[in-house]
User: Fold this.
Amino acid sequence: QVQLQESGGGSVAAGGSLRLSCVASASTSRNYCIGWFRQRPGKEREGVAAVDGDGAPTYADSALDRFTVSRDNAKNTLYLQMNSLKPEDSAMYYCAAGYTYCAAIYGGWYRASGYNYWGQGTQVTVSS
Assistant:
């Protein structure tokens, strides 16, 4: 059983930066998809970014050019560098590990059903 633990959230002013980390209790597949999701109150959970162990990262339109996702398999850690933060980025951020590679997830990498391990989340609040 793999357990995921997010950290790095906090409260920042608009335009600031945060770096989120997600540490796994055990190694996940080197090739399978690992992603970041976020959820705001009253809103649907949405995919932010994802990456395979050997592939290029992919991003939601809202994250493109501002966020960078990366993974360090040796440390069982996933990262999300967030720059130029906006108030609409405020959300609970979750990391998730999938059971196949990103391109093979039915319906797209951003589908929560494609991931079988989830962290408890870390809160990000961006003030205007």
